[in-house]
Amino acid sequence: MNARRLWIALATLLHREVGRFLRIWMQTLLPPVITMGIYFVVFGSLLGPRIQRIDGFSYIEFIVPGLVMMSVITNSFSNVASSFFNARFQRSVEELQVAPVPDWIMVAGYVGGGMLRGILVGFLVLLVSLAFHPVRFHNLAIVMAFLVLTSLVFALAGFSNALIARRFDDISIVPTFILTPLTYFGGVFYSISLLPPIWRALSRLNPILYMVNGFRFGFLGASDIPTWIGLVTLMGLAGALVALNLLLLARGVGLRT
Amino acid sequence: MNTALSIRNLSKTYSGGLEALRGVDLDVEEGDFYALLGPNGAGKSTLIGILTNLVRPTAGEIHVFGVDARAHPERARALMGVVPQEFNFNVFEKTLEILVFQAGLYGIPRTEALPRAQELLERLGLGDPMNQIAQHLSGGMKRRLMVARALVNSPRLLILDEPTAGVDIELRRGLWEILTELNQKGTTIILTTHYLEEAEKLCRNLAIIDHGKILEQGPIQDLVRRLEVQTFVLDLAAATTLEQLPSGFQIRQIDPNRLEIDVPEGLTLNQVFAALEARGVEVISLRNKSNRLEELFLHLVGRGRL
Known about the structure:
- Chain A has 257 residues and is mainly alpha-helical.
- Chain A has helices at residues 3-23, 25-28, 30-47, 59-90, 94-98, 103-129, 140-164, 170-184, 197-203, 207-220, 227-250.
- In chain B, the strands form 3 sheets. Chain B has a 6-stranded mixed β-sheet, with helices on both faces. A 4-stranded antiparallel β-sheet of chain B has the order 2-1-4-5. Chain B has a 4-stranded antiparallel β-sheet with strand order 12-13-11-14, with helices on one face.
- Classes of the chains: A mainly alpha (257), B alpha/beta (306).
- The A-B interface holds A 1-2, 4-6, 8-9, 11-13, 15-16, 87, 90-92, 94-102, 252, 255-257 and B 14-15, 49, 52-56, 73-75, 77-78, 80, 82, 84, 86-91, 97, 101-102, 104-110, 149.
């Protein structure tokens, strides 16, 4: 296929993926916005004023970037994992397999859809946060870089999960047992400077810590981790996951016997 | 005449050790209407799966209109359309969107795909509820939808895996008409089917596959001509007794008004009729007990040789 036809194939897949999550917005966009709104009420308005300032910022101001990032992570991941696994389950993924679509288009189409949902949900959560505290940007370019790279990494991870999964249960294992604990212990609600040294050192093994802190730095100009480490970590993870997905597809994992 | 599909020494051994294909060689000429027959588990679906990128071959070569399908899989797939055995579209999508989506994957822009998809849906009798959600279609309509989807990229080679399995006779005949028309317009068609009457009616050439190997391939007429024995059913004008039947023939009485007779190569029907007439047995009609292709198939698959 020439470049124009490849672009049409990619745009077709993206169009369907975006159309899918927009069509079922009650399941895809509304729930995370409501959940995060509740977090803002409970932690920001009710408990927040009783918690002392962190790095010079009010508690609601401190947790907003982390909660936005949490929404981006879970939605980018789950969009790709559920949509692609469902296509495998229904066998409609065969429409892609029989067509002259290279593997990288399949990855790009699904991952692009997941990224767009993650970013859109993140934007909506940020909008809701305005009801509780005005937003300020220390460095918009860093905010955007972390937003795009984080959604990319977790959409790619969702694709890997959907390829490897054999049952619907398998696509809920990662969010439940890996993403949720890592996100909660990733500095969304606290600064790791508050932790004892051993837990601080262990926290540095959690990749989500780098994402949350880098993203927070873009808003507040304060972070537990140097921003460049976060960016390099994200780019490294993205590169590794792209390679993993292409390798899995080339070997036919989950798709070809 | 160009070769639409050329397969050489194609093998597939599944991870569990099952040898589904064992060195298959197959040639399908451009413009042919080709039947691929075989019992369940013979290797047909594996072969179709390899051609359509759903199964990875263990060894062998495939060329589609001269394009090496293993070296340039996307170029080869661009020339093909596939109607699978099982429904494999997103049941929550609308029919028009399913076709437009598939066209897009072949690089056809939406503005071009829309009128083409509408035309195909009309042509396949899905025009009235054109934009229904696929899940609400009847079984027959879903099957026609898969045919329409396979045609949206105007393939030069159309592969149909049991397209009429479980569909009523009216729909089956409708599909036959569509496929015949497509073939007459130049589309090369490969069909797997369990209905041997369908293969004999539609196809010019066939291959019979069993245990992962091609047992026979060639023009259908040449192959059925090689049958050693044909069995006919005779309807009689009046009830007969066993004593009335002539000796020297393999005749069985089904009931007093019907006989079954095996006619081996070298014996003519004229000789049979003459013998019956001499005994006062009047025949009012005759038919093959089973279709000739079915007899050939049973000879090859059931007995392992012609």
